[in-house]
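Input:
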Amino acid sequence: MTTTAIHVRGLEKSYKDLHVLRGVDFEVASGTIFALLGSNGTGKTTIVKILSTLLKADAGSAAVEGFDVVGEARQVRESISLTGQFAAVDEILTGKENLVLVARLRHVRNPGHVAEDLLSQFDLVDAGSRRVATYSGGMRRRLDIAMSLIGDPKVIFLDEPTTGLDPEARLEVWKIVKKLANQGTTVLLTTQYLDEAEQLADRIAILHSGRIIANGTLAELKGLLPPAKIEYVEKQPSLEDIFLALVGNRASVGDRASVGSRESVEDMS
Amino acid sequence: MSTHFFSDTSVLLGRSLRHIFRSADTIITTAITPIAIMLLFVYVLGGAIKAGTDNYVNYLLPGIMLIAIASGIAYTAFRLFMDLKSGIFERFHSMPISRSSVLWAHVLTSVIANLLSVVIIVLVGLMMGFRTSAGPLAWLSVGGILVLFTLALTWVAVIAGLGASTIEGASAFSYPLIFLPFVSSAFVPTKTMPGPVRWFAENQPVTSIVNSIQDLFAQRPVGSDLWIALAWCLGILVIAYAFANAAYRRKMA
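Output:
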């Protein structure tokens, strides 16, 4: 199980004067959940769009399941599924019709049956015959992800899957993502929520200023900081601390005192 | 074009047709303004207009149909814009489907929706006294010209829908198109117009199309107007199609 599902080398992309990606490298092993973590506007969506053949990079290469995203775009599209930042569902159609639509476009056998199956899997049976315009945010997202699973894609891109969802809907999405990975699907997830990456991902890459500035398991990322010198209260650095330390003023990375003392003050008060 | 072009296009066409039948207001609103104009010109202004015909509805109907189409194609720009905004376009494009199907489905939907509006207008025209002795062949020719006209303008609408940055911008481009029939032979014969206006009216696409349809309905021999009309429609179609596809590739690159 050490095959590579996604391979990205030296990816660069500019929008006019804005140099969004300045040489991005990473690999995602098959069947794992990989989280791209970064603030808004750091280029997470740009990477997802390049990998899902929607956007061409200025330089560098990217391959999904061994297929080049430019030269073998069609094979890439057969291997992937994209769940974009905003639930890409058809409001005027019913939930079931949305699923049947995608099933037909993916040329799977028995689209109606596939749709029924997914409706029950995603707890949308009662809503299946209602127009999506009447759905809540969480229901839309569930339908959106259900649409992405049709045709059993090997790799799924989830671009900020829980942005704008209430906590309950968020937990539901997390459950779905974990289940996907257990079934052997490779998941590339972008998020600006640190706890989401912490909860879901096997590996986490932090994207900042157009580059991956850290990439590893949660434990490895925690190891990037020198062991905490505990002064008042014993407390492991959370991923949030690591992220902010790495992303923020680099000079303050080693400045444990400031991080430590802030926590201590809070804890004392 | 890929192997799945026809099946993908028909699936996506089914989707857009559901849209228009579930919000049939787009067909009705497309028909209603032209019908209002027809009522106005026949029952209010018609008595004073000398079009050289004893049945002004017969004279007017072809132009009214063109006004309906010119306004109806704005919905294609609108629907395209909404698909782009909602992200459903990206979903389609990240799937292994024929990419040109996505545009063709919208264009064919436009043809069907506009023809339905035209049918409503013809029915109202019949109630208002429109009469023709045209046989099946003449009706088919009229239908063919209207389909070609709709296709040509719809591809223009595709450019607008892909290029617009706001929903208003996507729909507003068709306003000037609606006025083209007013400065043509659609309402009055061009020979009553002063020099420059007459020159413009006689050399813009709508006049030749209107004249052709009037001749076909009246069972008169169709002159060179038909060829000019076809040339206009095909010319606009080819150019708009090329620009639309270029805009599409730019959007996707």
